[in-house]
Amino acid sequence: MKKLPIIILAILLSILFLAPAQAREASLRILYVNDFHGFADPYQPPGSQEKLGGVAYLAAEVKKLRREKPTLLLAAGDMIQGNSWANLFQGKSSIALMNLMHFDAMVVGNHEFDFGQEVLKKRIAEAHFPVLGANVEGFQDGLKPYVIKDLQGLKVAVIGVVTPDTPQATNPCNVRGLKFLTPEASLEKYLPELKKKADLVLVLSHIGYQADRELAAKVQGIGVIVGGHSHTKLLEPAVVNGTIVVQAWEHAKALGVLDLQVEDGNIKHFQGRLEMIKPAQGRADKAVQALVKKYAARVYAVLGEKIGKTEVDLDGAHVRARETNLGDFLADIFRQAAGADAAIINGGGIRAGIAKGPITIKDIYTVLPFDNYLVAIKLTGKQIKEALEHGVSGLEEGAGRFPQVSGLSFTYSRRAPAGSRVKEIRIGGQPLDPQKEYAVATNDFMAAGGDGYQAFGEALKSSPDYFCAGGMLKGEKLAYNDAGHWLRDVVGDYVRRQKTVAPQVEGRIKEVD
Fold first, then answer.
1. How many CB atoms lie within 10 A of CB 3?
2. What is the pLDDT of residue 20?
3. Does the pLDDT of residue 90 top 70, yes or no?
4. Domains in the chain, number
């Protein structure tokens, strides 16, 4: 009889250990935005019948959706630079906004570097959330590779990667001393470590939708990729090699929502969507609205002056794909100001359009938010062709290097391989002479090799050390240099003089078979 309790205990223990373990189940909601670029106020995009966006309305939607289940709020890069609401304060307003909304993590985008490394360090220090960049080497003070978040027992690893093309997508001087590894290499380095620490691995990415798909196809073990950089309006999640890929358009015009059911570290069920942010149909978060208005009032005090008007909509939406009236307008201004034979500017440097009606200084600053200045370089006809070939080589992905031009016209074939697409080129109405030298107006970003325009840098033979130290570009091929006058101010002065503008597309860039 004394042995009976021992026998019963043994039986109970054997039942306990032999019985199948109960699966650990958890629900998780991921809310995400990307490519905010400081567009805090609602605005009416070209072709839209209503205003979209407004971060106070987005914040209200975040607050509502957070109440329902454990949630992560994530930002996939390019948050602190773009619109004047952010630029006038070098991104400080965007970080204050994100703190107020209680973001859980953010990955750096290429435009986070646009104000230079020292400013970025200040913004990271102000953030109440981790700022990630696992594939950035050499950056000191605050940039982390990943963070582990515990949501009611579910451990989620969030690792951040930014495009390795960042040195071409920002002024090269802004990333001097940094090395940008491939996202694939960085993930292979950290994934074994993360799998030991977390139930689920999430990549917060600023490399573009197509690159996200390629990353998912190459690297095993990623649960979710929350992406940015390509401004893709992905209405529902994509699945590549078992990895869920999402992205939420741009400018706070949509909030991404991804609901996951996780069992023993595996995603058993998911459902995702974009919640379109429409002020006419929503309510604003009062605290966020007050913060937006505070910074907006300061912007308006500086930039609210009306300086002219446009009798037509100025198209800034299609500058990465074709000639637009705004691209022609700006290129003409820069060519004339520099006294050059032609002008070539990158479409990606034009960040917005202007609706028909009054033009304010703020409008000009929104169109041209970067601190770039006007230069002109002496290029041979051969080098001009090389530059134009480079400009149309990224048509398929809507690359920012697409050229807007003045003083010249050219035809190209999309069907031809990159590097052999440009056909006929004329300058001043005459066929391009490969040996002749022409003065070509552009901006200092492109002259320093930005957007991959190597033909400019090679012709100029500028000194990177001198340039990055804050001096002016130099070189025997430099025909014009106005480092003390930002491009947006050149344009503002022109509009003030003209009062009324109405540029039309002139057929300078034509696609042929």
1. 7
2. 45
3. yes
4. 2
